[in-house]
Amino acid sequence: MNLIGNPAGKALWFIESHFHEELSLDDIASCGCVSRFHLSRAFEAATGFAVMRYVRARRLTEAARRLARGAPDILAVAVDAGYGSHEAFTRAFREQFGLTPEALRAQGHLDNLALMEPIKMDESLLAHLEPPRFVDGKPLLVAGSSERYHCESSSGIPAQWQRFNAIFGKIPGQVGRVAYGVCYNADDSGNFDYLCGVEVADFSGLPDELSRVRIGTQRYAVFTHSEHISTIRRTWNTIWNKWLPESGHAPADAPNFERYSEQFNPVTGMGGVEIWLPLRN
């Protein structure tokens, strides 16, 4: 993989070269000459982890190795891992590994720990991504079922779609038969809301249990996802880490979405899927 234009690849190299130093999301984004927003989305698409969560896990893994070897000064290990106190380090360590630094040092081995080893970049970008078309999108009201996910635990989305299919076509004010998978409210920690929904004429009359997303007028790059729906992350990865850096465009901090036309077959998982990436004007 050519890392020259790959923000996630550059970030991994920078993190592995500098995680013993003070690091911020801005520092890591600067190494790839992209925004925090662009890097966060690109890194999550390529690795499945939030940037700073990965940094923390790598630091704690190296700290665990030192403790298993019998490091005498736990506070020194904590400071080297970026923590200002023994208490803060212990809380983070227990959250990461399920035991305290003292307990690990006493047991003297790492056999029962899930360590975060350096990630090798997934090189499975699409060999050929069809050039997008550019669309000035109209305002869109989308209603449906929404769940909060983390980029490391978004495997529940297919089951969310299965639940939503039971109400598809029955939503008050539904417009057409197109479905939308809308990603919004993303943060730097890798959390995001995902809504399975349909366009509606207005939000009045909707049951309270349905979520609503209002998408404003927006310029989009629209990509066709031609493979099985289970590989859509591969297409997103190629967009964020290859097409976007080479395109000269910048992403807008706005909802992005998958559009499932009537040609999409939910049984075979094929056909009629587009990815709409919002761009800065």
TrEMBL record:
Q: Which UniProt keywords apply?
A: DNA-binding, Transcription, Transcription regulation
Query: GO: which molecular function terms?
Result: DNA-binding transcription factor activity; sequence-specific DNA binding
Q: What are the residue boundaries of the HTH araC/xylS-type domain, all occurrences included?
A: 9-107
UniProt cross-references to PROSITE patterns, sorted A to Z = HTH_ARAC_FAMILY_1, HTH_ARAC_FAMILY_2
Matching Gene3D superfamilies: Homeodomain-like, Regulatory factor, effector binding domain
Q: Which SMART domains match?
A: AraC_E_bind, HTH_ARAC
Name of the featured protein: AraC family transcriptional regulator
